[in-house]
Amino acid sequence: MSQTFLLEPDIIAATENIMPDLNNDLIRAKNFLKQQSAATGDSLYDHLVDLVHKILTHKPPDVVDNFEQFSWEVKQEKLRPNFDLLNDVYLSPPQLDVARKMEEMFKLVGSKSLNMQDMGEEEQELDLEEESVRPKIADFIDHNYYFRQGGYGLPDSECYAVYIALNMLAIKEPVATVRFFGKIFGTKANYYVAETDLTIEELDRRVREFDMKDMPGEGEGLTEEPVQENEEQKEMMGEGEELELKSKELVPPKLPPLPVSTWQPEPPIPVERPGQGVNKKVYWVCNSLGEPWICLPDTTPAQIRVARLNVRVMTGDLDAEIQTFPPFEGTERHYLRAQIARIAAATSVSPQGFYTFGSGEEEEDLDMEEAGDMNYNQNPFYTGHTIKDLVDPSLGYWVHHGRHILQQGRTIWWNSRAELEASIVLEEGEEEEDEAPPMIEPEVGPSLFSPLSGDAPVSGAAPWSARVSSTLTSSRALAVLRSNLWPGAVAYATDGKRSECMYVGWGQKHQPPNFSPLQLPRPQNEYPIGPEVMEMADPTFADEEAYRIAHLPPAPALEIPGEGEAFGEEEEEEED
């Protein structure tokens, strides 16, 4: 038998002509109180519920006298806007801040171009003469087009913003050349990295500051004067006064001398000067395009050596603490600079002959090993290579134009025993040179412009992967090179005079699957272990008796008696 369930309105309509019922009357009264107001959308039923709940919660005195006041407060709380809800608060999107920064950046670069257009003819001629002094900015828009042809590069919107940011860097900072190095990802923010060469004036200023660090300050020589005055006062004192002072002084007890450590630390490896070696280039970073560029400090050999032993991802905060073992001296800005130096040394590649030593105006025949830290520039006589040669698996037509970093953390080897060897030769003379300690063999790395065919393999695979960007249109194809040692480093080259390299990655070297961090060293011994400090087993009775017998005093020597004495003694023995 099916049952039908009626709703409250149906029950009310069905019972209109029936005798009064308490349940029906309650339902009708409840529906009447739940009628909503057209102005506020609230009902009397809900208002009474909230009012009773407020009274029971606070339990104020004299509720009847202040009932209207409580009712008014309940209404005010409902009508008051709730600012805790995100829907009621306007939050500006993050793109708005980026757009404002980009607008300022575009206005700065645009105002400079407008000023050049408003110049007169004489001013324009003077301006053309100063073009040689102006910073040279690499055309990243053009290079990014070729990178995207090979499947890499940045989006167009980000590419234009990077190019404008490089122009802003050239306007505000004393740089001679500006180039986009790449983009390094971080857990909280990313880094845009720009590679620059400083102007001659700025480079000279930094070199002078670097040289002044090792020189003593002006105030250090003043500390010797009081010592000289005290010595003069002692000489002027009489002998009697000296004896009185000595008698008054307490004679300290004689103590055994403290042990002297024979350990000598290794001499610190000197830092390469600004404009040389790993500090040849100056790098600037920013987290967002439009923000001011921040100059990274010069790196040191110790930082590079420790960075090779650690694996750490960037956070995006230059002041973040580096907690690694071995301990790294510095913050994330120093670690980032060390990683950039390693990446630049290993992934700065170009076709053979694209760069040359010297100014590049004339062809020069120089020995690569004797070149040292010489400057190199783009070769105007470079004619290019065919795409077939550039993608050859032997990679004989690609070379490194980044200086190799030695195990010392420098590009130019430094002899730590040079002063010691020189002093030994001066003291002992030429005759005793054979007895001197052996000379240290200098560390030699690959020379500049060494071919990529000499690179070591990576986990049994080739260190570089070369391919053609397109097999459909050979006339517009280009050669693309990707590093397997530093994932994210790419380079391209056309059959003409265009080539560039860029890095977009996490700033980490390829790691094998079984990588394990460096273990802590074993704790050193507190004291040298020898027989005088070693525990020994207690001797047994037999050992003690053997020791006693071994250390008995020697027996007295027997005197040889005369003939008469010996005869008398024999008779006494017989009588007994």
Automatic annotation (TrEMBL):
CDD domains: DD_CrRSP4-like. Residues 553-576 are annotated as: Disordered. This is Radial spokehead-like protein. It is found in: Cytoplasm, Cytoskeleton, Cilium axoneme. InterPro entries: Radial_spoke (IPR006802). It comes from the Eukaryota. Keywords: Cell projection, Cilium, Cytoplasm, Cytoskeleton. Residues 566-576 have a biased composition (Acidic residues). The keyword Cytoplasm applies. The keyword rRNA processing does not apply. Pfam families: Radial_spoke.
